[in-house]
């Protein structure tokens, strides 16, 4: 491996040539010029750590929310056992409660009643602080705008609730976001019935009442406007930040192609560009813009790959999201950790830490601190000891969590699912090579 090799990074040029983008409209770029290249997938330990750090976090928080939703803030253990498949738990609920004694406490209300589960005082304190964030006007307004922008990516301004539910954790929405949040914003949203275009069945959809022009500005456009000090005009060739990890080499002709591709006009993800030929370079840049904006709307700048593809299918992108992930590993990274594949926006991370951390992410790191905290606890008069599996730094609430390596079996083999007829994946212990043929 090339551990001593200097990491290659590609950044936008200092200035943008306005004349180029104004005289070459994006509708003319209907050809594909990427003809002969070898692109390899290289494992990124830092981004893998960022993903693996949150192992079981979503499931634990779902159980936590289920428990505190009860009037007594506790539930019988027997009522939680059937929820294993619903919350996608890696093991039985009873074992989950035993594994995380700093979060869950088991007790028997009376000799005639079964075992119950409640939160520990430390976990309940975090829950109240998390709830305070969800109730704060600043966070509520931010969450509403991000959800509205997600709907605006759909062009029709509507998405099925089952798709939004896939993203609600990554969007930072409360578990009961419909009653807790949306009901207070009738000027933004409405829920109605619609026919699912994929299966023809009726489904509930969340619809944006009206198009919000002030929100139809992508993160790329905001950034360019901030650094250039001028309004971003339609057709400017904005460059995506590309960061290639150690061990990643691109052929010179590929690097030249990337520069040419970056110089293509930037089409806003909030603009409908399905009129472009789906296999053209310009269409691919627009696809990357949509995927980039989607990940930027998420508080952790990452989500499961299956969520991305589900949304892409509904929006009509087909396998174009899949090709974008393979073609542009300097923009997106796919991690095989925690029993799934996770798409990560590279530029949002410095090593394994978020560059800009949302307040909810700070709370989640504090939950992780409790999850990793093994301690003695008593259950029915028996003292159980749990081996410490991770070492957590005192500043865990700042996202600095250190852990032992826990390599997943066959993680490289899972990456083969990215391949399609155009991409033949050949894996070894360190690298997956993707061959791209003429298109």
From TrEMBL:
| UniProt-annotated stretches for the region Disordered | 395-439
Feature: compositional bias, Acidic residues: 419-428
Mind listing the GO molecular function terms for this protein?
Answer: RNA binding
InterPro entries recorded: PORR_domain, PORR_fam
Q: Where is the composition biased (Basic and acidic residues)?
A: 400-409
**Boundaries of every PORR domain copy:** 42-375
- Species: Theobroma cacao
Question: Which is an annotated Pfam family here?
Answer: PORR
> What protein name does the entry list?
Protein ROOT PRIMORDIUM DEFECTIVE 1
């Amino acid at each position: 491996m090339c551990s001593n090799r200097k990491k290659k990074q590609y950044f936008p040029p200092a200035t943008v040539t306005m004349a180029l983008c104004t005289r070459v409209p994006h509708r003319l770029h209907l050809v594909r010029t990427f003809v002969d290249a070898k692109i390899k997938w290289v494992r990124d330990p830092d981004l893998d750590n960022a993903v693996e750090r949150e192992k079981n976090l979503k499931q634990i928080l779902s159980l936590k929310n289920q428990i505190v939703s009860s009037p007594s803030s506790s539930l019988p253990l027997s009522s939680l056992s059937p929820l294993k498949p619903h919350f996608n738990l890696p093991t039985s609920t009873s074992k989950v409660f035993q594994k995380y004694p700093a979060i869950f406490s088991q007790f028997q209300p009376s000799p005639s009643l079964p075992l119950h589960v409640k939160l520990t005082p430390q976990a309940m304190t975090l829950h109240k602080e998390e709830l305070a964030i969800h109730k704060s006007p600043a966070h509520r307004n931010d969450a509403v705008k991000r959800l509205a922008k997600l709907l605006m990516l759909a062009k029709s301004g509507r998405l099925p609730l089952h798709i939004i539910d896939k993203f609600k954790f990554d969007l930072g929405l409360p578990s009961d976001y419909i009653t807790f949040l949306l009901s207070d914003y009738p000027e933004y949203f409405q829920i109605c019935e619609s026919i699912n275009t994929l299966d023809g069945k009726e489904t509930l959809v969340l619809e944006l009442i009206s198009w919000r022009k002030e929100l139809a500005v992508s993160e790329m456009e905001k950034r360019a406007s901030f650094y250039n000090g001028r309004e971003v005009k339609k057709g400017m060739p904005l460059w995506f930040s590309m960061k290639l990890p150690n061990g990643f080499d691109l052929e010179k002709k590929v690097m030249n192609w990337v520069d040419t591709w970056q110089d293509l006009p930037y089409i806003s993800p909030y603009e409908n560009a399905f009129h472009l030929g789906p296999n053209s370079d310009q269409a691919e840049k627009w696809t990357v813009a949509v995927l980039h904006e989607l990940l930027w709307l998420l508080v952790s700048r990452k989500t499961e790959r299956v969520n991305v593809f589900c949304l892409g299918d509904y929006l009509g992108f087909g396998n174009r999201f899949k090709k974008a992930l393979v073609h542009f590993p300097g923009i997106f990274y796919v991690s095989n950790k925690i029993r799934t594949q996770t798409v990560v926006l590279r530029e949002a991370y410095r090593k394994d830490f978020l560059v800009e951390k949302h307040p909810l992410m700070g709370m989640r790191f504090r939950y992780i601190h409790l999850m990793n905290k093994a301690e003695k606890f008593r259950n029915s008069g028996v003292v159980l000891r749990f081996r410490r599996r991770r070492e957590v730094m005192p500043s865990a609430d700042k996202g600095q969590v250190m852990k032992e390596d826990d390599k997943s079996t066959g993680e490289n083999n899972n990456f083969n699912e990215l391949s399609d007829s155009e991409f033949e994946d050949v894996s070894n212990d360190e690298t997956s090579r993707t061959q791209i043929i003429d298109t």
